[in-house]
Amino acid sequence: MKEILRFTPVALFVLATATGAQQRPPIRQLGAVVATSGETFTNVAGIRALSNGSVLVNDVFGRRVLLFDPRLSRFTVVADSTSATANAYGGRVGSLVAFRGDSSIFIDPSSVSMLIIDPSGKIARVMAIPRAEDAAGLGSGLGSTSFDAAGRLVYRAGGGLRLGGAAGLRRVEGAAGAGGFQLPDIPDSALIVRVDLASRKVDTVGSIKTPKVKLESKQDDRGNISIQSLVNPLPVVDDWAVLPDGSIAFVRGRDYHVDWVNPNGTKTSSPKVPFDWQRLTDEDKIAFIDSVKAARERLGANAPVPVGTGTPGGALGGGGGGPQVQIFMGPGGPGGGPGGGPGGAPGTVRAGGNLGGQVNFVPPTELPDYKPPFLANSTRADTEGNLWIRTIPTSAIAGGPVYDVINRKGELVERVQIPVGRTILGFGPAGAVYLLHREGTTATLERASIR
Q: What is the pLDDT of the chain when averaged over all its residues?
């Protein structure tokens, strides 16, 4: 009599991935760094490499757009927040996108406009953002905003945390929560849309899983209510990118494969990417949360804030966990004002930023059972049509971060390690790759070769 073997879903998952994990390519080192900027930054949200080797840099904390020469030794100011140029950066973070040829677009959510930058760094003209409601998302650089081969703008719709309206914070008679307020249900997915700038026609090309934002409410003895988000430093998310041929890649974090929207509109899926899946026990989850807290304490005021739109793969949860939010309501309290919150306004809302350096984490039990392959905003497309995905290490690997390189067929063709303290910002002609090198609170721009 034959014995019938039965496997749990977890066991089947492990069996299906164990063989693939042994077939991963060996890790190679990125090519040498050939240029370093003399100018320093606090953070750079993105770059735009031009065909002559020059590169535009979006200095988000300095609120500047700079055009560097090929050696990164000199730069001109394209836009900033002072009177030094005729072009204002705006009061909010903007994003930089490659446009036709060597022209670029700077998206300014403050003015709900898009500035067309010519190859010399001059503002050629200004266009309106296709949909005003997407201004915040476009300006924040959520994901890999790009133009496809047909000249349509592809981006992640929405992006702002909305607490008003039907889905917002509401007072409900007898409701559970803080003082009868019903906490909003924040979605854990987002739409990727495509818009024709001439016709303004918008269509949805797919969706991605985003970090789930969990809210926690507390009420003190004076009746003040505070609502804070809890950060998950290890969320299971999806990522996406637009390739040079106009294909849109959706990288799925749950089982690590790529879904494709092809230039002709057809959709295909690639097999699972080999990955060394690491199971997290209850003890592992507790240790992980404790290690993140300890690392933040060591860094003190320099600790990065874990936000879902942070630097790709940033340390201590940057790139995962969702936006950090604080809400204060009540008759009065430690804020000093009549509303009880900082600044005194009733119902004060603060989202993003350092929020005083305080970060609260979800309970360890809410971490996934398997360490995910990547965090949000970890994917970049190179000029050859390959996806570079910064992976989360599942074992001790000496040196810097390791990127999985996946070709247009969805095959893992290389694993590339970059130097310590670096993050890939983007790619340029002739095999150039641009890195952000962090040291303490400052950073420099570097150009290296892919090989």
A: 80
